Amino acid sequence: MPFEGYPSQVQAAVEGLLEENRVTNWKISADSANTTVVLRFTKVAGIQNGGDGAVGVGQRFPPHLEAALEVLLLENRIVNWGITAERTGSITAVLRLKPVGSVQDEDSAAQHPENRSPSSHSGRHHCGRAVRQREQRRANIAQHLERSTGSANNDPETMEGGDGEASQPAAAVQTESRTLKDENNFIQNVSQFFNQEDISDVVLKVGEKKFFGHKFVLAKSSEVFRTMLYDKRWQQAGLPEIDLEESEECQLHFEPFLRFLYTAEVQICVNSAVGILCLADKYSVMSLKTLCTRYMVDNTQSPKVQNALNWYSWAKALHMEDLIDSCTKTISWNMEQLFTLNEWLEMDIDFVADILGNPQLVVSNEFTLYQAVERWLLSDSHLTDLDENSKKLLPLVRFPQMMVQQVYKVETGELAQKDGSKDLIEKLLNKAYRFRSLCPFQADLNITFSEEFYRPRNYKDLTVDTVRMQNTLRFGIQVDVRTYVGPVPSTVREGEWKITYRKSNDSWTLQVYCHDSAMVNGEARIQVVLVISDDDDRVLQVEASEETVCSRGNHLTMVITLPSNNEAKLMTVLIKPLPN
């Protein structure tokens, strides 16, 4: 560092400034003289004639750079330095950086009387004025640089020697680099080697088939293949033929998997997706796994229930959260369709438990769900494990959300008479009866029923209104609807509400107002749920509001964006009374 206090980053920044302005035939050096730092720019291309004199730097050095250096200091917040410019010889230009608030050494001042300026006298007045001047220059620098760059590049004096004799102009050097790609040809060149025997250096045996491979291609695409082919600790490493043990599903689809390593493309369909996905996961080909996941998520969107059922267990096994979420939504929203399929009784217990534990199920009522669980428990394939299966599944059924008549049917039903389940059912039904008895008085008794066991799912029986989405007559009109009063399910609906609908493009706004008749102790705790379905009653989307305590002084507002596709036909509005 040539001078204590000199900004160390300035020299490097100035070199960058020269490069950016294509001033490529100058080099920079720095030294100090007392309180002055000198940046010396020396012409290194061409031979210059002699000639001294206090000639402006602009005759030798691109003039716009002085202003640019001013900005450089300001951008680095170095506001206590000033710049003066001069020419000291035929091939040298100098920029002097001086602290504007310091007193310059007398010897230095005598040696350079032409450099004396107000900046050589200390004082706050001048320091503030210098800062303001720099700020003004900074504000106008864009215009100045544009003008002076053009003049500097075209001014004959900037290309002349010290006494006006012409010299060769500096050659502009292109310093910007670019990356050129030839991806298509590269992939095409690699793909032509797929399964070519004459240039293969390894054979992959999969079941009864053999594939001719290339170690480099396999190793660059898969860490697993790299280990198998080159790690000496691997039993088959270095062998000309490697036997791969794959499931029947993976054997069927190994060829498109292997082709992807050469072509970066894969032909996939609903029937091949699982096999290709498992191979991508096993051999850690993450790009292919990502592509498979996207395809499977797209093809498990509601109402594609069958795909969701087929792929749910694979998504769980491979910890694919996006696919799990997509499958879960589609299955949960269309549970009653699942109950009609033969696959329902063949589902494993973990799947059934996952579904029962999902609070977003869309079903007619809890009793319908219980009947499906009862059929599953009493089916021939599960009856032998009735005791264990009942302990895992029955506590997930929300008996308190059944009507009293439905609770009684459970109590007298077949499952309640079985030795493996009757004691558990009796215990759960007692909790349901307790809820029905105490919930209306929970404020007085200071008790809560906040567990999921006591809360309603998305029951279609809670429907208060159904809107055909292409019907514009509803917009801006109030609709009167009714619910039962309080959180205890009842067939009597005496709670009055009003709903208004507004639509703007694909955005819908619902406002729900509560009347006194729907309140208990001056309030009603609810959640509004919208179920969007097609003409075949297949659910496409479910949207739920925040839980809201409605009273005489407020209302619930719900703004949602609904699907604009042609399949969405009906919007069913549910009002769910919630316990505290």
Describe the structure.
It is built from 20 helices and 18 strands. It is of the alpha+beta class. It folds into four domains: 9-159, no CATH class; 186-299, 2-Layer Sandwich (Potassium Channel Kv1.1, Chain A), CATH 3.30.710; 334-455, Serine Threonine Protein Phosphatase 5, Tetratricopeptide repeat (Alpha Horseshoe), CATH 1.25.40; 459-577, Apoptosis, Tumor Necrosis Factor Receptor Associated Protein 2, Chain A. Helix 10 (273-282) packs antiparallel against helix 11. It is extended and about 95 Å long. Residues 1-5, 45-60, 101-127 and 148-171 have low confidence and may be disordered.
State the shape: extended
Poorly predicted spans: 1-5, 45-60, 101-127, 148-171
Strand tally: 18
Count of runs of 4 or more consecutive helical residues: 20
Distance between the termini: 72 Å
β content, as a range? 15-25%
Radius of gyration over all CA atoms, rounded? 40 Å
**By helix and strand content, what is the structural category?**
alpha+beta
Main beta sheet: 5 strands, antiparallel
Helicity, in percent? 25-40%
Q: What is the domain tally?
A: 4
Mean pLDDT: 81
Protein name: BTB domain-containing protein
Pfam families: BACK, BTB
Organism: Littorina saxatilis
